[in-house]
Each structure stands twice: as structure tokens, then as C-alpha cells.
């Protein structure tokens, strides 16, 4: 056996059906035939996501939100994935998935409640088959697998999707989730948004695997790389993985190769760890102009689509601002109220300490 050989039984080339210039490419395995309405709808959601994302950043800069992690650059990865799912397929997000939240019908203000610190898990997520955002990296991948295993027992044919970052793939929880899902053939799709960075840690410091998708080989599940800036490819790959999960075929690991164009969060200064050349390179691969060029090439891009998207975004931004400005001030001790059904002695003590501290400040 030659131990110097790298595992190579997985095609490392990301699936793409649109060139960076916006021209269509045929792919033997993925059919991207959609109606013109479906095609423009994807574009509109990307434009909406970018505009609402920018409003989140503005509100944070105005001091209305404590923090915000922008998804700028990752719109195709998110919109393409969401478009391939059913509304009862449960999403288990990390925290950067604004495009998915909006497409699911979760109000922007409900997302804002998390980043303002008004309400820990946001409002209305479970009603839209979406778990609360997970700030602890990777823990939710296990929840996604557990929920996926529950679906067949409940007689449901829904699946779950665990959204994980490139950095999250280094977490023990994600390893356990992948292994368990494969062993139990759980109807779960692992959707890695490889945006090249985990705060200031580049992908090259995250793994020595030929790609993140290659990790699937070790778990015994299919792994596939997709161009995460190609909305149609992301949609097509997710659709196949979802069909596989729904028909009892088990989990799939998808690596959507994309880029975080913005800082990690509003608290981050990326100029300290990455070059402008790198950002410029990815700006040229921006998924939105790329898809606009594709639609234009097919004679499907019209100013009305842009206007419709901007109107929808403006309404969502207004709803976000109102929700954030009108957010109730939550009593600080509520922090302890939902930890456990019956509070422990420690929790009561800590709550008392906080109250005493607050009354000293008054
Ligand atoms: C268990 C845990 N460890 C560390 C952190 C600190 N942390 C917050 S975000 C982050 C990077 C995550 O990177 P990635 O999974 O690539 O997601 P991205 O932010 O790029 O979308 C880290 C290490 C955390 N939140 N939870
Ligand atoms: Mg990352």
C-alpha cells in the first residue's frame, strides 16, 4: 500500500452550471430546467437577501443591534439550497443564514430580535420549521441528525438540513453527527458553506483533506462539491441530496464553495488577516451579477424583476426597522427563566445576584 497517496475517489471540481461570465454549461448529472418564473424568483431572493443583509449592518452601526454576521457573497449558496427544499424540511442553521430565514418566511425583525438581544432564539423560527440559530459552533449538527432520525418514526418523509461552516467541520460534534447520520441512514443533508474563513483562520489551517466534501468518504456517505456562487448548481445538488434522503437513501455531505465578502461579524476587521487581492478576486465571482448575466443571456432579465426585488426588500427592511425600534425591553432576569423547567438553586442564586447588581446601579 502506498501511504503517500492522497485519497482521490471524489471529483474535487465543484459542480457548476453557469460560468463566472454567466453562460450556461451543461452538466451530465444535473438538470436545471426550471420555468422562467422559478428562475427569476431565485434572482429576486438573492437581491432581497443582500439588501436586507445591508440593512442589518446599518442597524448595527447605528447601535440598534449588538452584533451581526453578514452573509454577503453567500446568497447563491443559501437561496439555491432553500429553493430545493420543502417547507416542512427542518433547517438547523449556524447563524449566517439570512437568505434561508427570509425565504422561509421568518420576519426579518424576528431575526433582528436575536442580534439585538431581545430574545435569545429569535421569534417564530420553529413555526417555519427552522431551529434557533446556533452560536456554539457545530452543536446543532447533532440536533439535525436527531430530528432527521425522528422523522420516519413519526411517519413523516421530511428531512433535515444541518448548515455548517468550514470552521465547524473541525468540531467533534460535527464528526459525531456525520458518523451517526451515516450509520443510521438518517434523512439529513449536511450543507457546508465553505466561505474560506473561520473568523481569521483560513481553510488551509482547518484541514489537510483534499476538500471538505472528501470527508464524506470516511463516513461512508456521498460527498459533493458545488460552486456555491452558482445558484442553479446549488439548487440542483441540494435537490438530488434531498430526494436521496427522502427516499430512505441516507445522508449526503455537500460542500458549497463560496466566500464571505464581508467581515466575520460587525466586530471584526478582516484587513488584519486577508488581502484585498483575495477579496477582489471573489468580488469578481459575486453570485448576483453572475446570475443576472445568465438571466440576461437567456432573455429573462428585466428591470421589473429588479424593481420587484427592491420593493420586497424595502418592505422587509421597514418591517425590520420597526420591529427593532419597537422591541420591548426585556427584564434582564428573564435570562434565567427558560434555562430549565424548574430553576436550580444555582440559577436562583445567580438571578438574585443580577437583581442585586442592577439595583445597586439604579
Ligand atoms: C464551540 C465554539 N467554539 C468557538 C466559537 C467561536 N467562534 C464563533 S464563529 C467561529 C468561526 C466559525 O467559522 P465557520 O464554521 O467557518 O462559519 P462562518 O462564521 O465562516 O460562517 C468561531 C470559532 C464558538 N462560537 N463556538
Ligand atoms: Mg467559514
Could you give the topology of this structure?
Blueprint: H1 36-61, H2 75-83, E1 90-92, H3 98-103, H4 108-116, H5 139-153, E2 160-165, H6 172-183, E3 188-194, E4 197-198, E5 201-202, H7 215-219, E6 223-227, H8 231-246, E7 252-257, H9 276-283, H10 287-297, H11 303-325, H12 345-361
Parallel strand pairs: 1-2, 2-3, 3-7, 6-7
Antiparallel strand pairs: 4-5
Helix pairs in contact: 1-2, 1-10, 1-11, 2-8, 4-11, 5-6
What does this structure look like?
It is built from twelve helices and seven strands. The termini are far apart. The chain has a five-stranded parallel β-sheet, sandwiched between helices. The chain has two domains: 36-330, Thiamin diphosphate (ThDP)-binding fold, Pyr/PP domains (Rossmann fold), CATH 3.40.50.970; 334-362. The chain is 43% helix and 9% strand. With 362 residues, the chain is of the alpha/beta class. A hairpin with a 2-residue loop joins strand 4 and strand 5 (201-202). Helix 1 packs parallel to helix 11. Magnesium ion is lined by residues 165-167, 195, 197-198. The site of thiamine diphosphate has 15 residues, from strand 4.
Amino acid at each position: 500500500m502506498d501511504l503517500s497517496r492522497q485519497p482521490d475517489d471524489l471529483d474535487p471540481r465543484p459542480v457548476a452550471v453557469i460560468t463566472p461570465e454567466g453562460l450556461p454549461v451543461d452538466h451530465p448529472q444535473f438538470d436545471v430546467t426550471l420555468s422562467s418564473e422559478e428562475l427569476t424568483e431565485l434572482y429576486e431572493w438573492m437581491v432581497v437577501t443582500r439588501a436586507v443583509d445591508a440593512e442589518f449592518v446599518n442597524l448595527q452601526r447605528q447601535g440598534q443591534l449588538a452584533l451581526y454576521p453578514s452573509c454577503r457573497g453567500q446568497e447563491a449558496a443559501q437561496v439555491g439550497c432553500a429553493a430545493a427544499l420543502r417547507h416542512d424540511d427542518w433547517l438547523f442553521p449556524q447563524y449566517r443564514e439570512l437568505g434561508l430565514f427570509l425565504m422561509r418566511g421568518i420576519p426579518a425583525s424576528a431575526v433582528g430580535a436575536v442580534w439585538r438581544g431581545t430574545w435569545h432564539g429569535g421569534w417564530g423560527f420553529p413555526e417555519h420549521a427552522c431551529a434557533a440559530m446556533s452560536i456554539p459552533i457545530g452543536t446543532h449538527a447533532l440536533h439535525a441528525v436527531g430530528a432527521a432520525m425522528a422523522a420516519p418514526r413519526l411517519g413523516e418523509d421530511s428531512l433535515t438540513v444541518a448548515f455548517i461552516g468550514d470552521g465547524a467541520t473541525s468540531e467533534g460534534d460535527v464528526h459525531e453527527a456525520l458518523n451517526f447520520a451515516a450509520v443510521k441512514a438518517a434523512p439529513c443533508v449536511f450543507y457546508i458553506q465553505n466561505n474560506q474563513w473561520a473568523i481569521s483562520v483560513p481553510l488551509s489551517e482547518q484541514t489537510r483533506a483534499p476538500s471538505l466534501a472528501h470527508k464524506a468518504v470516511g463516513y461512508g456517505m456521498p460527498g459533493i462539491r458545488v460552486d456555491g456562487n452558482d445558484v442553479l448548481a446549488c439548487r440542483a445538488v441540494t435537490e438530488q441530496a434531498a430526494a436521496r434522503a427522502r427516499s430512505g437513501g441516507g445522508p449526503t455531505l455537500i460542500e458549497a464553495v463560496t466566500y464571505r465578502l464581508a467581515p466575520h461579524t460587525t466586530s471584526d476587521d478582516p484587513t488584519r488577516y486577508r488581502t484585498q487581492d483575495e477579496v477582489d478576486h471573489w468580488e469578481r465571482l459575486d453570485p448576483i451579477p453572475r446570475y443576472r448575466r445568465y438571466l440576461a443571456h437567456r432573455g429573462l432579465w428585466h428591470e421589473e424583476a429588479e424593481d420587484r426585488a427592491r420593493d420586497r426588500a424595502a418592505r422587509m427592511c421597514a418591517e425590520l426597522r420597526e420591529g427593532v425600534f419597537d422591541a420591548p425591553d426585556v427584564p434582564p432576569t428573564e435570562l434565567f427563566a427558560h434555562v430549565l423547567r424548574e430553576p436550580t438553586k444555582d440559577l436562583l442564586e445567580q438571578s438574585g445576584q443580577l437583581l442585586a447588581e442592577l439595583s445597586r446601579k439604579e
